[in-house]
Structures are given as structure tokens and as C-alpha cells.
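Fresh eyes needed here. Kindly weigh in on this sequence plus C-alpha cells:
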Amino acid sequence: MTVRVRIAPSPTGNLHIGTARTAVFNWLFARHQGGQFILRIEDTDLERSRPEYTQNILDGLTWLGLNWDEGPFFQTQRFDLYKQAIQTLLDKGLAYRCYTSEAELEEMRAAQIARKEAPRYDKRHRNLTPEQQAAFEAEGRRPVIRFKIDDDREISWHDMVRGKIAWKSSDLGGDIVIARASETEPFGQPLYNLAVVLDDIDMKITHVIRGEDHIANTAKQILLYEAFGAAVPQFAHTPLILNKKGEKLSKRKGVTSIFDFKKLGYTPEAMVNYMTLLGWSPPDSTKEIFTLAEAAELFSFDRVNKAGAKFDWAKLDWINTQYLHAIPVPQLTDVLIPYWQAAGYQFDPVSDRAWLEQITALIGPSLVRLPVSDRAWLQEIMTAIGPDLAAAPDAIEMTRYFFTANVEFTEEGKTQLQQEAAKTALKAILDALDRHQPLTEAGTQEIIKQVTKELNLKKGLVMRSLRAALTGDVHGPDLIQSWLLLHQRGIDRIRLQSAV
């Protein structure tokens, strides 16, 4: 048997991290088994489906490196298959036309709730005579199509994550609607449970891997597989992704879209690595950094947890740093150049290449995330998420003083330079600078040593004063390397004189 799995997102929103994590597990299982990973777009919700969401899903999966072997297939292009299947169920007496109005359904549910019963369809139109159907048609009622579910069944399967799962058919809410009503056709738009089963049969899907919120659907769908005389695939219901409080991730309370994570500065390698660990643990628990291909070699469902996976921003940040810090300086420079350009920094990407790479080498080890260009959006997101999403060094802000003519002083920087001893130290550094041309790393160290000794000043004061004069702050990347980079542009002397 060739393993065939699928990811089947609905294009009613952007690619959600929960859907993306499901795609990761499907991809890993398919690659581990030497099988095939199929992409299907479940766009039968005509009112809410949007082409821009479809594109977002395709782009998101591509960005994550989750290449698919077949597809994308679109359910809206498969209506003929669904309609034939519906007619087959009607002909076999396994489905029927139901004319119950919405008002009647509401009245029925209210009565059941009043009796403290679970709401369910009471099968009132399951056995209508042709005359009764004609009477409803004459009233202008248009029928939905319901699939018959008998109440005396136990539906069970062996779940690859949860072991044996069993449902009583009487707990499924009665006969389910599999097609909407239509004003012009015998029946209308097919609904999820029918379409997904027919697609999985037609595409020869062997394993259905999806979130645990689909468990009730699985019970209904097994009955549909049986109605069509088809083999039932194996199921794996993965744990949901939860927030710190143990609640399902909500878009209203933070970030859930994959491209929002990209916008926040996370790399695709870090995202798929982290999502792999959301509910799965490798055999070697000490190893947490691995590529998709490496994870695929190890992946199995006996190491997927049943409990919900709590999202941990600090863990994602740590994984992201492992990938950022491993990027070679030339490649990381290529990544950062567009951000610097978007910030309005003036430089020539070609003639200034060596200088830019030195800046990258200076700040690279401090990076946790890539820059966020939309500062207002970032502030909004950080407010929504709270302290769990820590502030991170920003490559745009960290390097601003290299690209601007005038330095912007922080309050700490201003306070440092207001000290008389700071001005004395900076004057001495300026004088010594003339005697160390061209300036080298050894020369900078000699100047600081000389000024500290001759003026009997503490080295810390000299270093803080020099940093404040050159960069505007008393904190930042390595001071000596920053000084040398500014010296290459002739900016160090100007700023020292201005500070004095």
C-alpha cells in the first residue's frame, strides 16, 4: 500500500498555525513512509471562500517548505461527483429529502432543551409519502438532503494517536444534512461531511491526519464510507494548539496566521521546526533543532501526545535564534539589506558590500527575530499577546547610527555626555585619533588605554562616554567594532567633535 495523505484547508481565512501544524504532521508522515502528500482546497463554503485566502494558503505552505505531490484540487470543480453520489444515496434509500423549515427546527430544539435533552433532528421527514412531498413542494418549500443515521450503532476505530475511540450513533445529532436546498435544482450545494468522504475515496487517501476537533465528524464520515462501500482510511487526531491558559488559540488574542509569524521576523525553518515539536517529541529528547527531512526520518504517531500542545513564545524565539545565528554572514546580509532599504537608509548594496557584511557580523549574534517594518502593528501585537512575547533586538534600530548623519541621543546617552569627565575624555580621544591613522582595532585599544592612564579616569567612564558620543546610547553592539565601522565612513571624528 502506498501511503497517501492530504491537507485540506478551507479558504475562508489566512493559513492558520493549527492548519499549518497539521500539514507538517501529514508531510512528515508521508515522507517517513515514502508516500504522497496531497493538497486539496475545500472551498464549498461559497459565501466565505476568497481567492486571496487560497493564494495565502499556497504561499504559506510553500514558504514553510511543505511541497505537495498532487494538487491543489478544488472542491468547487468536483460538484458533478458529489451530485451523482447524492443521487446514489437517494436511490438506495440511504438519504432523503427533508422539508423541515428553520422555524420548525428551532421549535424542535427549544422543546428538546426544555426537556433537558441534547438537540437532535427527530427524523420527522424520513419517511414522507410522495403526496406529502408534493404538498411541501406546493408550499414552496425546498428540501435539504439528509443522510440516515440509525440510533443503534456503535461506531469505533483505532486512532493512531488515541487508540480505540467509540461513538454511539445516537449521539451524533440525528440524520445529518449532506446537501443544502436549491431553488432551481433537485438539491443544492454539498456539505463538508459528504464532500470530504467522496474526495478521500476518489483520491485514494489511506490516512486522515487532522485535529482532535474533527473526532465527531469522523464517526459520521465512517458511516458514509460504509454507505458507499469504500474502505475506511486510518485516522490520527492530533492535539490542538493552546495558549498559555490552556485555551484554543484565538486570532482576537494574538497571532495565529502563518504570515503574521513571518511578519514578526520568524524564519520558515524555525517555524516548521517549532510546529513539529507542538505535540510530537523526537526519540532523542535532547535534540530539538532539525530540518524537515531530519524530522521525517524520526516521525511516528506513537510519539504524538494526546494532550493539547501549549504555545511557548520563548521556545519559538530560542529556536529562531539557532537558525538566524547559523546563517552565513553573506546570506544574512542579503536578508537584511531589503529591511535597511525599506527603513530609508542610504548605501550602495554593491560598493558598500564589505562594510555591510561587517555590520551584519557585528549584530548577527544578537538577533532573535528579523526586523518588523510595521512598528505600529508590532506594538499592537505585543500589547495583545502581553509579556509572553518578549521585546527583541531590532536590526533596524541597532544599526541606525551607522546610516544616519546625526546621532539620536537617548536619555542615558545625554546624561553620560553631560559629565565634565566625559568631555575631557572625548577631547583626549580626538587628539589621540590623529596619531593612529589608519585606525585599527589595536589602535582603538591603545587610545582607550592611553586616555584612561594619562587622565586617571576609570575605563568604564571612558568607554561609556565614547559609546554615547558615537552611537547616542550607553548600550549596544561591540563598541570597538562599531567605532571601526564608523571610522571607515569618516563619521567617528564628526560625532566626537559634536559631542565635545
About this structure: The first helix runs from residue 17 to 32. The first strand starts at residue 4 and ends at 7. The CA atoms of residues 11 and 51 lie 7 Å apart.
